[in-house]
Amino acid sequence: MKEYGEPCEKFKDYYPVNLEQVKEKFGGLRFYYNGGDDHVAGLVDMAEEMSYKICERCGNPGKPNKVGWIRTLCDKCMLRDTL
Fold first, then answer.
1. Helix (H, G, I), strand (E, B) or coil at 52
2. Residue 74 contacts residue 55 (beta carbons within 8 Å)
3. Which residues of 27-56 are buried (b: 16+ CB within 10 A; e: fewer)?
4. By the 8 A CB rule, do 34 and 18 touch?
5. Which residues contact 33 (CB under 8 A, 6 or more apart)?
6. Each residue of 6-22: pLDDT tens digit?
7. Segment 22-61, tens digit of pLDDT
8. In angstroms, rounded to a whole number, what is the distance separating the alpha carbons of residues 82 and 60?
9. What count of Cα atoms within 13 Å lies in the side-chain half-sphere of residue 25?
10. What is this structure's pTM?
């Protein structure tokens, strides 16, 4: 039995990640983190890019609006906000 804190063979290539903050800025997400490897950096980049294409309200395909507070919404949710 391994003691607490001792890495097991299965996770020998594991790089710890410390997520500091997640913010919404200009209609997309920004992740602030320390650690990780190239795989983690790629996942974060992908999530940030996808946040500009997914409605933050319903999860359908969306896009950032161009007027007022910038939010990423689908056409239906954007129309609902303007009514």
1. coil
2. yes
3. bbbebeeeebeeeeeeebeeeeeebeebbb
4. yes
5. 17, 18, 19, 20, 40, 44
6. 656 766 677 889 999 99
7. 999 999 999 999 999 999 999 999 999 999 999 999 999 9
8. 18
9. 7
10. 0.76
